[in-house]
């Protein structure tokens, strides 16, 4: 949704909502976002699938609200046609790697505690309950087949000769892993640094963007924590009380590496990222 029409839709839908300034964020992968007076976040899904699922996302978050100790979006505005919705801005700074490195050991421990408690609460919700909120259960084998096809067609021709067998061996390893059974439950699905907010003043973690929620392997929600280092992810997993098995940490690392291939593929499919960004992730995540 373009900036002008988006603002006019918000004003028409919620005539009592007033603002004096706004920031329009058009570059999100799945949503256009506008922030009103640094106080209200309004998200408009780009694709029909996300628009169809928005009401279910709102209902699920209301169910989660009293069950988690971290802050999550509390949608107080919903358009009549379900095409956009808004919530009070959650405080905090995106927990990117540079920000994480600036934190004290005590702060990192607090974040580990809160993430472990959040993931434990979410992952312990029965799948039957998650399905009532329209949460889907993707086929991991199909997803992997799609990734293999796209990687072979788009990415491998652009890699250096010595990088190609590394990717091929990884895809073979992922295929073998997909044939084993793992604990599956409700997951956030995209728990990366841009969706983890840390409020240093209140010492509070806030989690945003549940649009990729699904029923899947719990290890997926630990994958991006590898960006903060092995010591931190081990701290979170040690404090985690949800369903896990002896292979959870290993699979999380596999999914973290897979993300680099996905970035390279997506960059060549028109998503707002670059091949260079994905290749840099590949070099860092696949380093010996």
Mind explaining what this structure looks like?
The chain is 45% helix and 14% strand. The chain has 288 residues and is of the alpha+beta class. It has two domains: 3-88, Phosphorylase Kinase, domain 1 (2-Layer Sandwich); 93-285, Aminoglycoside 3'-phosphotransferase, Chain: A, domain 2, CATH 3.90.1200.10. The strands form three sheets. The protein has a five-stranded antiparallel beta sheet with strand order 1-2-3-5-4. The protein has a three-stranded antiparallel beta sheet with strand order 6-8-9, with helices on one face. Strands 7-10 form a two-stranded antiparallel ribbon. Strand 8 (196-199) and strand 9 (204-207) form a beta hairpin. Helix 6 (140-155) packs across helix 9 (248-267) and helix 9 packs antiparallel against helix 10. The mean pLDDT is 95.
Entry keywords:
five-stranded antiparallel β-sheet, Phosphorylase Kinase, domain 1, 2 domains, alpha+beta, 288 residues, 10 helices, three-stranded antiparallel β-sheet, single chain, Aminoglycoside 3'-phosphotransferase, Chain: A, domain 2
Structural class: alpha+beta
**What is the topology, as strand order, of the major beta sheet?**
1-2-3-5-4
| The CATH topology of the largest domain | Aminoglycoside 3'-phosphotransferase, Chain: A, domain 2
**CATH architecture assignment of the largest domain:** Alpha-Beta Complex
Number-wise, the strands total 10
Q: Give the helix level as a range of percent.
A: 40-55%
**How many domains make up the coordinates?**
2
Element order: H for helix, E for strand: HEEEHEEEHHHHHEEEEHHH
Major sheet summary line = 5 strands, antiparallel
Proportion of residues in β-strands: 5-15%
């Amino acid at each position: 949704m373009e900036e002008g029409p988006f603002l006019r839709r918000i004003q028409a839908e919620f005539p009592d909502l007033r603002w004096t300034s706004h920031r329009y964020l058009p570059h999100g992968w799945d949503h256009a976002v506008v922030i009103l007076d640094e106080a209200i976040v309004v998200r408009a899904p780009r694709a029909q699938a996300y628009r169809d699922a928005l009401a279910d996302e709102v209902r699920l978050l209301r169910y989660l609200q009293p069950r988690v100790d971290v802050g999550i979006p509390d949608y107080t505005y919903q358009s009549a046609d379900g095409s956009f919705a808004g919530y009070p801005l959650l405080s905090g700074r995106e927990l990117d790697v540079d920000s994480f490195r600036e934190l004290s050991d005590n702060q990192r421990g607090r974040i580990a505690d809160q993430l472990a408690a959040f993931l434990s609460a979410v992952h312990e919700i029965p799948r039957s309950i998650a399905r009532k909120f329209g949460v889907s259960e993707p086929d991991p084998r199909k997803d992997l087949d799609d990734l293999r096809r796209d990687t072979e067609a788009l990415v491998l021709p652009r890699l250096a000769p010595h990088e190609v067998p590394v990717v091929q061996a990884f895809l073979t390893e992922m295929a073998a892993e997909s044939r084993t059974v793992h604990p599956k439950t409700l997951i956030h699905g995209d728990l990366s640094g841009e969706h983890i907010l840390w409020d240093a003043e209140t010492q509070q973690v806030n989690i945003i963007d549940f649009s990729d929620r699904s029923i899947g392997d719990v290890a997926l929600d630990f994958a991006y924590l590898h960006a903060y280092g092995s010591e931190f992810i081990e701290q979170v997993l040690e404090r985690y009380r949800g369903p896990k098995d002896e292979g959870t940490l290993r699979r999380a690392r596999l999914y973290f590496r897979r993300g680099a291939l996905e970035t390279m593929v997506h960059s060549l499919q028109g998503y707002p990222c670059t091949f260079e960004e994905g290749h840099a992730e590949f070099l860092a995540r696949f380093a010996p």
